[in-house]
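Why do we bother with a discrete structure alphabet at all? Because it lets us treat a fold like text: something you can write down, compare, and reason about line by line. To make this less abstract, here is a complete entry for MORN motif. Read it the way you would read a sentence in a foreign language you are learning: slowly, and without expecting to understand everything at once.
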Amino acid sequence: MKAIKTLLIILLSIQFGFSQVIDMVNAPRNPIGFKHKKEHFYLKGDIYSSAGKIFDKAGNIIYNYGTRYYYENNDGRITGNNYGDEFKYDSRGNIIKFKYKSGSTNEYKFDSNYLLVFEKNSYGDEKFYTYDSQNRIIKEVINKKGVFYQQRDYTYDKKGSNIIVSVQYLNANKMPGFKGSYHYKNGFLVKEELASGTYEYIVDTDKKGNKINFYAANEPNAKEFKTFNRYYSDANKNIKIEFGYYKPYNTKDQPKLETVFIDGERDSALKISKSVRPNEKLIYDGLTQTYYVIPLGNPDDHTLETRIEATSILSKGEPMISCSYDGKFINYVHGENRVKSREFAFIGPHMVDYRIDKSEGRTYVVDNYQNIKNQSLKTMRLFTTNENSILYLRELEKDNFFIVVEGKHIDYKKARFEYLTNGDPVIFLDNKPLYILTGFRTAQNNKIYEGRPYNGELDTQNSVSSVTPTPKTQTTQTASSPTDYNCSIGDCQNGWGQVKVNNITTDATFKDGAINGVAYIQYPNNAFYHGEYVNNRRHGFGYYKWSTGNSYVGEWKDGKQHGLGYTMDDKNYITTAGRFENGKLVEKQDQDYLNTKKVGSCTGECSNGFGKYEYSNGDVYFGFFKNSQRYGVGSYSWNNNSAYTGAYTIGGKRNGFGIYTYVDGSVFRGMFTDDRIDGLGRMTYKKSGNTVKGVFNNKGAKIRDY
């Protein structure tokens, strides 16, 4: 038996060892399907991280630009990611289908040499690849919706140690198009010969042969594109970790952003999180699984040159921890704190932490939390990756049991249960069978077990008994029923969908049938709401326009105006501004503004209130201020005619939902983080009129469907 297991392991290693062939040195232009191994990014050695990407010891990618990949079967195959996407493999270890949770797909086919020969997406784009006897691509044919669009022919030459790849396009009209030659050395691009000119590049590599710098040759002030690499063999290396700041693209008008430096080089693979203790940050180094404490001192005194060395270790050897201080706690997973996407409950002495990481649910447990509640640092573990997350616990001495579903206790007042013949209870809510507590008869005292969804088991047997449970209720919450929508387009359960009811069109993101995330609702007579939604209610920042032309721009809670906001008439003149509670204005902050009180460049109150500030370069901001910085809600117009209206946080940064109009008239309506587009949103392009929905990066480009 042991010999059979060993053979299976060897076969699996061979099987996945021969997945998609990569030869960057001799065939650097060969296409790659779904990139998920270090070779796909042309990385060598025992790489741990490079340019923010993180790999496991086998070279499989586990983190890339906010996407975390899971390999829970220990066979080298991706089983999922934090977006809920799906992966399908062939028998040889090639990914042949990648399906977004929204439903759109990319499909791939490979030949007997493990070379990609065909790919297709759900939009109808197809690509066909042909190779020569040396496994180098020589032809690429692109069809759009079955119609020929372009052909690209590749030829090869060699000059010294350089491989020269020449490309000639043939356009849809069968006329020659773009033509160029590319020189590669050791797999890196070092020269381009194009119609616009010849360009040469310098590539610096580390001792492992991986790129660490790239810049144009023969340019004294050439911009450098540096890459920071770390290796598993660096785990015991003495390094200097520092918390500090940087500005993207080296521009003066960009705010400084938090970052981590290792021996003076910025490393985006380390995570920075808020600490449970005041005036602190935490840094997590996944290579050594170490959490560091960073005392901030006075952040207002920090400059771009500020460096705070990480010398205080909070925890080492645990990727998941729970920290508590002064009656508060924060749970960290791989250095990240997902407070806003989390539900937690206490079941017996244990804490259950259920969180939606992007779109996939995962449940963590802190064992015996209540027994060690005075212990400031506790260990957390992953309990289940089942998105349904049905947990239960028995108190044998008191004959009680507790049930937690997706981080919330069920509403015991609406519950009853019937036993299956094997002794497992079927839990009913509102007389509907929903859950089965598997292994209930043999469950040990105060130990957490996982249940499962009901699937008609009572229909195939006679139930033994039907009773109403009497467990003690630690937390009582009524589960919300699925929204009864007539979905016309997309996925109105768990994705992006569109609903039309009574001349009202709702384009939004959904979770469990309820609007959650962002919503774009068009009412009759040109009324609309664009903004954030939680559980079918306006919640967060939103822009509401009535059919009269009047509008409200500001914060919402549970469907009502709540927080900072201002109203405008049909000509977009401010009528009121201040703090709202439950739909009513309770604190006016607009007196100085409406009275046109002017001090310097400010009209109104630009220290701690509402006003308009005109900058010397022609930019204009009107909205709320705190400590003389933009805060809460406001609108900023640049002198180049671009504009932003939306949420601001302390420090004057755009964080939350906002509407950004580009110089060319294109408009993005969606989420911002640290002054940059980042997350769910909808982009309408001025030139084409097309609207694109999904998840966007900080350059305003869609990186994935939702």
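What the structure line is telling us, in plain words: Residues 1-17, 462-485 have pLDDT under 50 and may be disordered. The chain has four domains: 2-216, 238-317, 318-479, 487-704.
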